[in-house]
Amino acid sequence: MKSTIEPVTYPTTYKDTSAIDTYHGEEVADPYRWLEDDNSDETVDWVKRQNKVTYDYLDQITYRDALRDRLTEVWNYEKYGSPFKEGDKYYFFKNDGLQNQSVMYVQDDLESEPEVFLDPNTLSDDGTTSLAGIQFSKDSKYFSYLVSEGGSDWRQAYIKDLTTGKMLDEKLDWIKFSGLSWHEDGFYYSRYPEPTDDEALSGRNQNQKVYYHKVGTPQSEDQLVHEDPAHPDHGFGVGVTEDGKYLIVSTWKSTSGNMLHYRSMDDPDGQLQVISDDFEHDYNLVDHLDGKLYVMTNDDASRKRLIAVDPANPARSGWKDIIPEQKEPLQGISLVSGKLVTRFLKDASTQVKIYNYDGSLHGNVDLPGIGTVGGFTGKKEDDLSFYSFTSFTSPSTIYKYEMSSGKSTVFKRPTVDFAPDQYVTKQLWYTSKDGTKVPMFVTHRKGLKMDGKRPTLLYAYGGFNISILPSFSITRLPLLENDGIYAVANIRGGGEFGSDWHEQGTKERKQNVFDDFIAAAEFLISEGYTNSDKLAIEGGSNGGLLVGACMTQRPDLYAVAIPRVGVLDMLRYHEFTIGRAWSTDYGLSEDPEAYKYLKAYSPLHNVKPAEYPATMVMTADHDDRVVPAHSFKFASELQDKQQGDSPVLIRVETSAGHGAGKPTDKIIAEAADVYSFMFHHMDESLRYDSKG
After folding, report:
1. In whole angstroms, what is the distance from residue 200 CA to residue 384 CA?
2. Looking at beta carbons, which pairs linking 278-281 to residues 24 or more positions away fall under 8 Å?
3. Which of 86, 219, 420, 439 could bond to 136 as cystine, CB 3.0-4.6 Å?
4. b/e burial code for range 543-554 (CB count within 10 A of at least 16 → b)
5. What is the pLDDT of residues 22-67, one digit of tens each?
6. CA angle (357 as vertex; 354, 358 as ends), nearest 5
7. Which residues, in sequence order, are CB contacts of 524 under 8 Å at separation 6+?
8. Biggest distance spanned by C-alpha atoms of the chain
9. Annotation marks residue 541 as catalytic
10. How far is residue 659 from each of residues 148, 149, 151, measured CA to CA in Å?
């Protein structure tokens, strides 16, 4: 039953009545603007006081320790990544169970004893430094890797000489939104100018440039390869084709659409040639094959197609379809054993088809069921490939696939203290406000009585063409094991049905996303799964915006709201770090028409005096993707306007960022806090005892 908890007394939050902006003739107050300065003593003190209130509250929930114990117990199993071959050795990642970061291993062959190759857990005392990318040189002489500290998007690059086994002296700084692409004795990468200390985690990221770093030289001597000072908000992805013949530069200014250029490596001083010189569509190079550049694109294909571009004649008129647009969206392509291994989405679940380079179908890969495939790993010349398969009830299992025979065999299956055959996942379709049919996955214990009283957690994302696919997570087990329901709505704004589905949830159409989510909640109630007193909603980043908008539009519909690292101030999101790049989905308040619809749904600007659900706003001090000021200001408004008895708390994680690389101990503690808060405000008792 619900613990007896002392009523919350919120810390005093200063209102600056002088902070007023004028947008197209309309004045908008921003009384908590001062919280945007994450370095100020006042903000640091505010965070400390808010966290004390939050943790004092959570400490009073009687089953919080039992939840943490159960999560720790069930988390403690070996987790493997798919093996991949570099040179004459195999590499893979493994976590023994409760390690904060997964460890990279090396072995001579698949049967030999693995050895530790790189252990990120040794990079910091508290496990908050994570590996953020790896790349081997083409001759396997060098190994380079990127590191993130405290969850930040900033990366540092390091290099290891594999012939001697020694780390090289050089360290590269201020890398963000970039990989490393090797060519000869060096690699291409992109970096930003060094920011001031005050702007490192919140200042706008502008003037990214492409460089070439030669091994054995300091970063200060890196060769500038490409820049565009006339467009400071443009960013660049850079790579070299596998055969080393072409340099590829992808230019982006937002999360959708990119320009694509190339240059022959035989002409290092030559001009970049154009495949696309606007931002209307997405173009992703697969590789240089049979004298052509193979490009996956949604140009003239909402669900994407694969085209071949002749480097000698890159004009659109010369493009050739290799894999035309299909009924199902094309999600990704791997090159293994002289074949194109493609992943398509069928109603938000993976299908795998194998094509020859000329686009003729070679065959299909039979999968264990409805779920999501990761991979395939392998090289063009390899017969052996590996892929992972997961679903809402199946932990990630690694399969070995022989390209020549088409045979799949289990390579690594985890042993988890969880019985997947006791649970079921169903895909349901419901109708949104405008009549659009939307799918939703619902997972629960088999035979569970649907009495309209099941504790239910509804999750969605709804943005940036990102597809939310079936996957297993230990953090959901407390819900499922306590006869709860986990629901995932594949709402518009995502990429589950191609770019048209995405575009229906962008800019002036963004309200469709919120309508889809609200309709999902209403459907779960009307179909007898749950009721408003037993329903929680959760989402992160753009999903945090989703939760913020839906709880301010329909505060009566939910018992609990968990907006994580959300984009919540839609009038100023573009003023911080990489925020301006999200304008393709959102629009900008600088535009009079965009201002109208942004202000109409912006969570921060739609908090009115009302009875809001129990809310735990979640953010982190090193989040330089969606800066914590969004959450700080939103929580302040909610605390000021809450008319009901349910608390509004904010949980600020330290030495953590937007989510990537978060150590295991922080993930477990966070999940225990979320479920404690959620179950408590659903008035639920749990079947766990103090030992889990």
Report:
1. 44
2. 279/252, 279/253, 279/254, 279/584, 281/257
3. 86
4. bbbbbbbbbbbb
5. 999 999 999 999 999 988 999 999 999 999 999 999 999 999 999 9
6. 110
7. 442, 456, 458, 485, 487, 530, 535
8. 74
9. yes
10. 11, 12, 7
Residue closest to 635 by CA, chosen among 5, 21, 19, 35: 35
DSSP string spanning 569-607? Answer: -TTTGGGSTTGGGGHHHH--TTSHHHHHHHHHH-GGGG-
Which of 102, 499, 541, 602 is catalytic? The answer is 541
Those residues whose C-beta lies under 8 Å from the C-beta of residue 344, and which sit 6 or more positions away, are 326, 328, 329, 330, 331, 350, 351, 352, 353
As a three-state string, the secondary structure of 73-131 is HHHCCCEECCCEEECCEEEEEEECCCCCCCEEEEECCCCCCCEEEECHHHCCCCCCEEE
Say which of 658, 676, 680, 681 is annotated catalytic: 658
Could you confirm whether 82 is annotated as catalytic? Answer: no
Question: Cβ–Cβ contacts within 10 Å for residue 367, how many?
Answer: 18
Do 293 and 262 form a contact (C-beta atoms < 8 A)? yes
Cβ atoms of 24 and 17 within 8 Å: the answer is no
Q: How far apart are CA 511 and CA 504, in angstroms?
A: 9
Distances (CA, A) of 146 to 104, 134, 159, 377: 13, 6, 9, 20
Of the candidates 93, 101, 89, 146, which has an alpha carbon nearest to the alpha carbon of residue 128? 101
pLDDT in tens, 476-518: 999 999 999 999 999 999 999 999 999 999 999 999 999 999 9
Q: Residue 552 to residues 382, 546, 604, 611, 641: CA-CA distances in angstroms?
A: 54, 10, 9, 10, 11
pLDDT of residue 577: 92
The Cα–Cα gap between 186 and 209 comes to: 17
Q: Could you tell me which of 427, 419, 398, 422 has the C-alpha nearest to residue 410?
A: 398
Residues 507 and 478 sit within 8 Å (Cβ to Cβ): no
Q: Six-digit token pair at 330?
A: 């094309």
Report the candidate in 51, 287, 272, 147 with the shortest Cα–Cα distance to residue 660: 147
Closest CA to 165 of 186, 141, 136, 137: 141
Taken as a whole, the chain contains a residue count of 692
The per-residue pLDDT for 506 is 98
Which parts of the chain have pLDDT scores under 50? 1, 690-692
- The residue written with tokens 């084709």 in the block is 241
Helices (H), 411-476: none
Q: What per-residue confidence (pLDDT) applies to 690? A: 43
In the chain, % helix, strand, coil (3-state, to 5) comes to 20, 35, 45
Which two structure tokens, joined as six digits, stand for 684? 């639920």
Instruction: Based on DSSP, count helices (H) and strands (E) in the chain, helices before strands.
Output: 10, 39
